[in-house]
């Protein structure tokens, strides 16, 4: 399998190199040159497979000979055995033909574990083979950092440095990062905000000379193709559990960076019958505004009860724009360069095509709280605020009651107790048993000034072979 850049000017790469690269050298994102396609008969034959067996069938064409089949099967068994549910991604019924797929049974209680548990293992496998080392540098406002740390804590060939804004992440989120022990794990609390952290990461990727040429940076955010790949699997899993591929499914996806919903779009292109894909956003609704009015325009960032979806621009949307433009990288490059300067639109027929592929809705904090309360009153089931946005959008956009509607449950409610309290539900969501002692565990992190030279010096000094 070859991978090409969405901006058309970077060299095509194989899976191993795509895994170790962040952005392409032309500033684009890597996508497969062509997608595998599965027949209904083949998908039908996957009924009854375990999650990890299914994952093998869906992902092996992307990984190819970078990981031989037996090793890849073993890696997937290990990856999905750390989830605290035998079904890995269990489905919970909300109403007639309406479901939540719980993607929060992994070690850090958000769907990001599905990809990052695998990414850590893939990285270490490939680096062992190549006798190489990487430094992961990432910025987090919450869920990505902890999932990346958990995914990489056992890696021999990876050091991981996660920057978070000092005193600006929730206590649960901070403790999930800072209580993981390991010589290769480094938490940096930056005296600044999330954007400051992200800017330092971006600049460091652009100029890695501070590492003295002895190692290189690797990315764990969803610009990394391997993350998207791992998220395609659970669309097949949900469909097969509910009678697919012989009936079509609808999915509603709480969306920030457009990673998870893009994986659903790919599942459909790979042959899975999906009749509706709903983009569910919070008040940071650039995607919903584009889908409703063909105007792609950045607004000021708003802080909401669903912080993991508080973003101004969705980086992965570029991967969809590439397809919408007939995979013309230069057209995408021009469009996004213009988008950085002001509002842009795409040709009407291209936008109409996008509207056929996706429905969308934006849900504010009040409707989020109303939904948490409503579902609790109806079912005694607690939603986290991100999943609640998905459920609300699913109900608002639903087209066909006969088609199962599945909302992706992206986080455990115990991660966001304040939103649950604000909804008026009086029960406090308890932390799952495997995390019950989170508040007693020892924390380790370093506070640094909002200054890139200091952060880079810290990294250069503290990675394993420095
Ligand atoms: C990351 C995240 C999202 C957004 O996912 P994208 O793939 O960036 O669209 C939604 N909900 C939760 C809980 C998350 O952690």
Describe the protein in words:
The chain is of the alpha/beta class. The chain has a domain at 88-109 and 225-422: Rossmann fold. It has helices spanning 15-20, 40-44, 51-63, 69-81, 112-130, 143-152, 171-178, 194-206, 225-241, 259-269, 286-293, 317-324, 329-339, 348-357, 365-379, 385-397, 417-422, 452-462, and strands spanning 3-5, 30-32, 91-95, 98-102, 134-139, 158-165, 185-191, 216-218, 249-254, 274-281, 359-362, 405-409, 446-449. The strands form three sheets. The chain has a six-stranded mixed beta sheet with strand order 3-4-12-9-10-11, sandwiched between helices. Helix 3 (51-63) packs across helix 4 and helix 4 (69-81) crosses helix 5. The model has no long low-confidence stretch (mean pLDDT 95). It binds pyridoxal-5'-phosphate. The site of pyridoxal-5'-phosphate (PLP) has 16 residues, from helix 10.
Compact description:
The protein has 466 residues and is of the alpha/beta class.
Strand fraction band? 5-15%
- Give the number of DSSP strands: 13
| Distinct small-molecule ligands in the complex | pyridoxal-5'-phosphate
| Rg calculated over all Cα atoms | 21 Å
Dominant shape = globular
Low-confidence blocks of residues? none
Largest sheet: 6 strands, mixed
Portion of residues within helices: 40-55%
Q: How are the strands of the largest sheet arranged?
A: 3-4-12-9-10-11
Arithmetic mean pLDDT: 95
Query: Per CATH, what is the topology of the domain at 88-109 and 225-422?
Result: Rossmann fold
Distance between the termini: 35 Å
Total helical elements: 18
Structural class: alpha/beta
What is the top-level CATH class of the domain at 88-109 and 225-422?
A: Alpha Beta
In the CATH hierarchy, the architecture of the domain at 88-109 and 225-422 is 3-Layer(aba) Sandwich
């Amino acid at each position: 399998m070859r991978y090409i850049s969405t901006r058309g000017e970077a060299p095509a790469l194989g899976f191993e190199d795509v895994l170790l690269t962040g952005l392409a050298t032309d500033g684009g994102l890597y996508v497969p040159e062509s997608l595998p396609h599965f027949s209904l008969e083949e998908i039908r034959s996957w009924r009854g497979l375990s999650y990890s067996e299914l994952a093998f069938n869906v992902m092996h064409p992307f990984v190819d000979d970078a990981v031989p089949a037996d090793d890849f099967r073993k890696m997937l068994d290990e990856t999905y055995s750390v989830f605290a549910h035998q079904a890995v991604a269990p489905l919970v019924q909300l109403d007639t033909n309406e479901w939540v797929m719980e993607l929060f049974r992994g070690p850090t209680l958000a769907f990001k574990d599905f990809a990052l548990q695998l990414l850590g293992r893939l990285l270490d496998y490939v680096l062992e083979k190549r006798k190489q080392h990487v430094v992961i540098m990432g910025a987090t406002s919450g869920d990505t950092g902890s999932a990346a740390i958990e995914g990489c804590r056992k890696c021999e060939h990876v050091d991981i440095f996660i920057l978070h804004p000092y005193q600006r992440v929730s206590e649960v989120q901070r403790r999930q990062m800072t209580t993981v022990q390991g010589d290769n794990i480094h938490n940096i609390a930056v005296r600044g905000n999330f954007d400051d952290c992200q800017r330092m990461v971006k600049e460091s990727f652009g100029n890695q000379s501070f590492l003295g040429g002895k190692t290189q940076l690797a990315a764990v955010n969803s610009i990394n193709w391997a993350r998207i790949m791992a998220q395609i699997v659970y669309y097949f899993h949900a469909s097969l559990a509910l009678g697919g591929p012989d009936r079509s499914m609808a999915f509603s996806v709480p969306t920030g960076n457009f990673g998870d919903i893009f994986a659903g779009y790919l599942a459909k292109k790979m042959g899975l019958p999906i009749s509706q894909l709903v983009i569910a956003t919070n008040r940071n609704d650039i995607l919903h505004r584009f889908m409703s009015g063909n105007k792609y325009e950045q607004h000021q960032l708003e802080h909401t009860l669903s912080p993991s979806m508080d973003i101004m621009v969705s980086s992965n949307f570029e991967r969809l724009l590439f397809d919408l433009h007939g995979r013309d990288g230069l057209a995408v490059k021009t469009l996004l360069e213009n988008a950085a300067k002001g509002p842009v639109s795409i040709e009407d027929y291209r936008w109409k095509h996008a509207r056929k592929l996706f429905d969308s809705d934006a849900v504010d904090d009040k409707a989020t709280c109303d939904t948490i309360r409503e579902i609790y009153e109806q079912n005694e089931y607690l939603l986290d605020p991100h999943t609640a946005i998905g459920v609300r959008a699913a109900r608002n956009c639903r087209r066909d009651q006969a088609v199962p509607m599945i909302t992706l449950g992206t986080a455990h409610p115990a991660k966001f107790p304040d939103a649950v309290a604000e909804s008026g539900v009086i029960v406090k969501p308890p932390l799952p048993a495997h995390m019950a002692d989170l508040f007693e565990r020892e924390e380790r992190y370093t506070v640094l000034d909002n200054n890139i030279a200091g952060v880079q010096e810290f990294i250069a000094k503290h990675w394993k072979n420095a």
